[in-house]
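Please, structure for the following, as tokens.
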Amino acid sequence: MRTVSRDLGTIVLQIFSESNFTTMAKYGEKAQEKVEKAMHERKHGTLKSGRSGKKVTSRKQAIAIGLSEARAAGAKVPKKKSSSRGRSKKKS
């Protein structure tokens, strides 16, 4: 039984590899460049946060800043996830 499922898996893989099945990229080249630049600045200690001007040390924050700059520049970047904090309804 085990060999049958393995063979079926290879058949499925062959079908997908032979077809022109491609996925669209979520992020564009410009977005990648902006994130690389932000990560480089963080590594050298020159990346500052927007409002407070404090030095950014977090890797995740640097990526977020790079994606935000890419969005502002019109690059292909998915929309930001909206927070659920503003959507909650008052219970009466």
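The helical segments are 2-18, 29-44, 59-72. Residues 28-76 form one domain.
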